[in-house]
Amino acid sequence: MNNVGLITGASSGIGKELARIHAEKKRDLVIVARRESELNELKQALEQAHGVSVKVIAKDLTKPDSGKEIREELDREGINVDYLFNNAGFGGRGNFHEQEWGMLSGMIDLNIKSLTELCHLFLPGMVKRSKGKVLNTSSTAGFMPGPLQAVYFATKAYVNSFSKAIASELEGSGVTVTALCPGAVATEFADTADLSDTSLFENAATPRSTAEKGYAAMEAGKLEVITEFGLKVMIKAGIPFTPERVGMNMIKKMQA
Asked: Got the DSSP string for 121-140?
């Protein structure tokens, strides 16, 4: 396998579109998600359409040692990862003190722990080969506190900070790290997070346009990409001058 891209959360949404884009560039893939049947359908479609090799790994990344198991399986088959797409993640609406701890713990494990572990497992090989690119799917949620999604917004703040810090550490190594920061995207995320009926998702972007912008930014070695211009203006020029309580009340209303 050549120019291998490992994509988590590849069975739907942004991850599925990233897989399609990678395959369109005649680059091979390792696709990871819990739903094996969806992964196998994607594998067959990509291999037939683009003549690439696609390996399927059905894995629940919230489970301990899941990242290590992926790495060991690829090592046994002599597969090097040149592109790492940490895309898997989920959110959930509700008051923090009323939400189930099991769900919140799983969110932290997937959005933070798994992403960090996979970077730690695959970056050394990239650095050794002086070649590699990482795209961590974050969110514009990472730039502000998020009442009614307190833990999700906090996990994405971690992803933003972590991605930029290790990108700085890797300068000159031949390896880059990019944070993909979309706003609302029309994926299964909205249903999972119980947000599909809120104003936040009224004008959601498409998974394809979001993936295209993220992939292009990754190839260019950018630190981050905020995929919607209006959101970029708001985040960079509006939020810093908005009183925090006012900003949090706006976020709360959009998710109510």
From this structure: HHHHHHHHHT-EEEEEE--G
Superfamily per CATH, domain 5-255 = NAD(P)-binding Rossmann-like Domain (3.40.50.720)
Q: How far apart are CA 117 and CA 93, in angstroms?
A: 26
Least confident of 76-85, 96-105, 156-165, 195-204: 195-204
Retrieve residue 253's tokens. 């209303």
| Res. 190: pLDDT tops 70 | no
**83 among known catalytic residues:** no
pLDDT at 131 (0 to 100): 97
Cβ neighbors of 3 (< 8 A, separation 6 or more) are 25, 26, 27, 28, 82, 83
State the number of CA atoms in the 13 A half-sphere of 156 facing the CB. Answer: 25
List 83, 152, 158, 215, catalytic entry:
152
- Sequence-ordered list of residues with C-beta below 8 angstroms from that of 96, at least 6 positions apart, any chain: 104, 150, 151
- Mean pLDDT, to the nearest integer, of 10-31? 97
If 0-12 CB within 10 Å is exposed, 13-18 middle and 19+ buried, where does residue 212 land? middle
Two tokens at 83? Answer: 């592109």
What is the pTM (predicted TM-score) of this model?
0.92
DSSP-derived letter for residue 142 is G
Task: List for the chain the helix, strand, coil content (%; round to 5).
Answer: 55, 15, 30
Please give the full DSSP string across 2-36, using - where no structure is assigned.
Answer: -S-EEEESTTSHHHHHHHHHHHHTT--EEEEES-H
